[in-house]
Design goal:
The chain is mostly helical. The chain is built from nine helices and two strands. The protein has a two-stranded antiparallel sheet. Helix 2 crosses helix 4, helix 7 packs across helix 9 and helix 8 packs across helix 9. It starts with 18 loop residues before the first helix and ends in a 70-residue tail after the last helix. The relative contact order is 0.10. The N terminus is likely disordered.
Length: about 325
């Protein structure tokens, strides 16, 4: 799997971290923790100089456990998987399902880290990370966690693919007012990266998102329609409605007496008094025409003309979806 899909879409699309970046983050953490351990040890050596050997050994062991083991566990728990080194390298520890880690995950990772990092100087952790397909060490395997890249290079974001033509306008009567913004964000992030996901993971994610979306709208997804195509069609319908409201607000502000005239130019109104809703009544070439409701066309878009005789028709843009058999 080249991309990680989360359960709550918080880190959707992040990539598992590999050994070099994890080693750099671990080195930064070890330098910080080692410096703190030396300072605390020196302070304790000065303050406990009158203790006997047994008491001094007990204090030393407690200092080792608290600073080298307990402190990293506390930091990962409180920061939800971001230590100082991981924060500097753009990494984060998450659960296998993508959710934030809890104390038990950090505890298992810290306990295993004593064996595979401190006692073996990182040899066991390096071998396990190289063998694992997602760069996980033994602590991640036992804790059910994964270290992911939280920052990706710029310019890698993708746009939401258009819906298949056979679904355009099919959900024009769907009530989308109750759908929360978090679910819209999850659906959009899935659609932008669905081709980069493992096939089984992508289908499972699409089915879960489609089920949640159908639950909020109160209308089940159509039978026989792929979940990804259903999500793309509903997102396209929402974008069309947002664009319609934006253009309608711009028209009302520009047509109001004493308006600034900064809106889109309009032609003479149609029979209904609204050129856009009349379906394209524009007296001049500057008018804004809109197709029928639910067509999926963005207001103000130009309808392509039919190809001239003797020329090959231009194929429609690829949507990434196939029509049902």
């Amino acid at each position: 799997m080249s991309e990680l899909v989360t359960g709550d879409a918080v880190v959707l699309g992040l990539r598992p971290a590999k050994l070099p970046s994890r080693a750099l983050a671990l080195s930064i953490d070890l330098v910080v923790v080692g410096t703190a351990f030396v300072l605390v040890s020196v302070a304790l050596a000065v303050t406990t100089s009158g203790l006997d050997a047994a008491a001094f050994a007990a204090v030393s062991v407690a200092t080792f456990l608290l600073v080298l083991v307990g402190a990293p566990i506390a930091v990962e728990t409180l920061s939800h998987g971001r230590s100082l080194g991981k924060l500097a390298c753009g990494l984060r520890v998450v659960r296998d399902d993508g959710g934030p880690i809890r104390f038990r995950h950090a505890l298992v990772r810290g306990a295993m880290g004593v064996v595979e990092i401190l006692m073996t100087l990182g040899v066991v952790a390096s071998i396990a990370s190289l063998v694992s397909a997602r760069g996980r060490r033994l602590g991640d395997v036992f804790a059910g966690t994964l270290v992911v890249r939280e920052r990706l290079p710029a310019g890698r974001s993708a746009s939401v693919p258009p819906p298949p033509p056979w679904l355009v306008g099919r959900f024009s009567g769907l009530d989308l007012s109750a759908v929360p913004d978090e679910l819209w964000l999850a659906v959009r992030q899935y659609l932008t990266r669905m081709h980069q996901l493992d096939a089984d993971v992508g289908r499972a994610m699409a089915g879960r998102l489609a089920g949640e979306l159908a639950g909020w709208t109160g209308v089940p997804a159509p039978v026989g329609v792929p979940a990804a195509a259903y999500l793309a069609a509903v997102v396209n319908e929402r974008q069309a409605r947002d664009a319609h409201r934006m253009f309608a607000a711009s028209r009302s502000s520009s047509d109001r007496p004493g308006g600034t005239g900064t809106g889109w130019p309009m032609g003479p109104p149609g029979p209904t008094g609204d050129a856009g809703r009349a379906g394209g009544g524009s007296g001049s070439g500057a008018g804004v025409s809109e197709g029928p409701r639910g067509s999926g066309a963005v207001p103000g878009s130009h309808t392509p003309e039919a190809p001239a005789a003797g020329t090959e028709p231009v194929p429609p843009p690829a949507t990434g979806f196939a029509p049902p058999a």
